[in-house]
Amino acid sequence: MSKNNIDTTVDDIFSDAFVSDSIQSDIDFNNLDDIVYNSSSSFDISEIADILLDSIDEYVFITDTTTKNIVYINKPLCEALDINSSFVGTCHELLCGRDTPCPDCTSNKITDDSIFIINHLNSRLHSNFVLRARNLELYNRTYTINVALPKTNQALVIPFREINKLNTNDILAPYLKLYAENVCYPEVQIYKFIEYFGLELSAENCTLFEHIDLSKNISYQNYEIDPTLNMIRTQIWVNEDLNVPDDYVLVPKDIVNKAYEERVYKEYAVDDALYVAIPLEFDLNPVGMVFIKNPNRDYLKVLEPAIKTIQRLLTGSIEHKKMHMELSNVASTDPLTGLKNRKQMLVDINNLSLNNRIGVIFLNVNSLKEINTEHGTKFGDEILVKTASLLKQLMPDNRNIYRIGGDEFVAIHTAIDETEFCVLSDMLKAFMLSEKGFSVSVGTHWEKSGILIQKAINLAESDMYTEKKTYYRKNHNCSRYRKQNDAILKLIEPDKIKSYIEQNCFKILYQPKFKIQNDVAEIAGAEALVRLVINGTVIPPDDFIPALESAHYTYLIDYYVFETICKRMRERLDQNEKVLPVSCNFSRHTIIRTDFKETLKSILNKYSIGYDLIPLEVSEHTNTSRYQDLIEVTNNLAEEGFNISIDDFGTAHANIYSLADLSVNEVKFDKKLIDNLASENNSKITTILGVLITMCKKLGIKTIAEGVEEKEQSDILKALGCDEIQGYYYSKPIKEDDYYGKF
Predict the structure, then answer these.
(1) For the stretch 680-692, what's the b/e string if a residue is b when 16 or more beta carbons lie within 10 angstroms of its beta carbon?
(2) Can you give the residue ranges of the EAL domain (predicted)?
(3) pLDDT by residue (tens digit) across 318-335?
C-alpha cells in the first residue's frame, strides 16, 4: 500500500464474519477483487485499498510479524493517535507505549491463516477495544493484519433485571447462538463466550486458561509457557469501563494451580478479590479453566443451572480449536519423524535471519537408498526416526530442527557463540561417526549475522558433502563409489599435479579449425585441449578442472599446456616444417595472477615463438566480480602483442559488451548457437549470427564457429561469412601427430 510500501489486496483478510453486527465494517471486503478487476479506471490496487481502508471507522494497521514494526496505518487510526501516516516504529510502542512486545501479542498466536481475537487493554486510544488479526505471507515475509474495533456499542445481552424470570433454556439461548454463529472460528467462539460471561455477570474480567500437555505442546509452540503453571492464559475479556494496569488482569499463580488440582466449580478469595473457577474437562481429562473476577453473586446463582451446558460448549470450542491447530501443524510437520519440514524451514528462516550468531548443522544419512533396497523401507524409516531422535536428544532446547528431504536434516542454532558452536559440532560429528548400525555425514557452518543464514545453510551443506565423499571413498562396495574420483580429489595438491605432469598423465589433443573456400576445407589452426589419463582411464576436463579451479591450481595445467605447444612449434620450426596458430584456454584464476603476462612472455622468449601463433582464449562475463581485473590484464596483453580470443561468445548478454571493453582479436561462437542453425525455425538464429558476424567484420575481429556437426550448419556459416569453422563435421579432437600429419 502506498503509505509504507506494502502493495497487496485485502481480499479474504477481513472477510470473516466473526464479530457481532454492531462492530462489523460497512465495507464488503469479499468483493474487493471484483471492484478492482471490473473497474475501468486507471487506479492502482494499492490506491483503491487505501481509499477503502481510510473510509471505514475501524482502525487498521499492518505489522511485520517478526520485528513488530508498523508498515501501514489507515487514516482513522492516525487521527485517533494524532500521528501522520509516515510513523516509524513498533505497534507496542505506538499503541501501548511499551519498549517490548505485548504479552498477548496476537501475531505470536496465529497459525497459518487462522484468526486471533483479543480484548486489548491500555492503549493510547484511551478506550478498550477488540483486536482481531490474521497473518499474511508476502514477498517471503510474514505480516499481521490487525483490525481494532472500538466497542462503542456493547453486544446485546439479556437484561439482568429479567434474568430471574427466565428458565434454563432461555438463559442458554444466547450461548447456543454464539456457538452456532461462530462454529467455523473456535477462537472467536471462545472469546465471545467469556465476553458474554463477563457482561452477564457484571464481572471485572473473565479469563480463560488452557491446559497444556508439555509432552505434546507443538500446537502452542508460539506461546510463552510458564513452567510453574499447568495451564497458560489464552483469552481474556476485561470490562471496558475499567482503566487498569496489565498486572490487574493476572490471576495469581497459586490460585491457578490450586484450581487446576481441585478441578471443581469453586470460589477463591484473594485479598479483596473473588475469583470463580469453572473447570473444563473432556473425557475426564483437563482441558482448561475459566476464572471470573468479582462477578455479581446474585446473577451467578441464577446462572448456575446452565453452567454445565456452558462448560460443555466451551470445552467443545477448545477441542475444536486444538483440532484446527493440529491440522495446521500437519502441513508444516514431517509425519515420520515429527520434525518440522522444508516448507516450515523456509518460513522460519525469515524470522531467524533477524538473529545474530547463527550456527547451521546439515546432516545426510549415508547409503539410505542401498539400505532400503537391502533391508526394506521400514528399516530405512527406523534409521530416519532414530536420527531425528538423536538430534532432539543432543539439542533438547532447539526448536529449529527440520527434515528437509528424504535423508537430509537441518538444525539451526540462534544466539550461539562460535566457540560453543564448534564444540557442539565436533561432539555431534564424533557421535554420528560412532557405531550405531548406520552412518550420517555432518556439515556445519557458523555466521555472525543471521542475514547470512541462507549462505550458512549452503556452506553447511557443502561441508556435509565433503564428509560424504570421504565416506564413499572408504566404502568401495557402495554403488556410488568411483575409484577414479580418488585420483581427482588428490589433484588439489600442487605436488601431485606436478607429479602427474612429470609422468605425462596430462595429454594434449588438437581440435582443428578450418577455413572454407570454394567448398574446400583448408586447415587454419587448432585449439589445444587437455585430458587426464590415470592407469589407462581417460578423465574428461569436466571431472577434474572444477576441482582445480576451486583450489585455484589451474594455472599449473594452463602453463604446462602453453609451454608444451610452444616447445612443439619450436621443434617443427627448427626442422623447417610448417606451423599454424594453436589457441590455448586460460582459466580466469590464471589470467588474474600477477605473474601471468611475465610468465607467458618468458615461455615465448624461451622458444622464440611469436605472439600471433598462440591466441589466448578467454571465457568471462561482465557480471563477475573480477571483470575489471580482466579488462586491465587483457588490454595489457594486447598492447604487448598477444591475440585475445573470447570463447563461448553469445551465451550471455554480457559478451556483447566484451567487444567494447576488451582488446579482442577474435570471437568464438558458442555451440548452443550453432546447434539451432539446422532446426526448422532457424531464421532468428541465422539473422542474429549474421548481424554478429557483420559487426565483427566492421570491428576487424575474426569469427570462429565451434560445435559444427552437420553440413547444413557449415553451409549457413559459410554463406554468412564466418571466417573459421570448428567441430566434429570436419574433425574431432586428434593427437598431435595426426594434427600435424594433416598438413
Answers:
(1) eeeeebeeebeeb
(2) 490-743
(3) 888 878 777 766 778 888
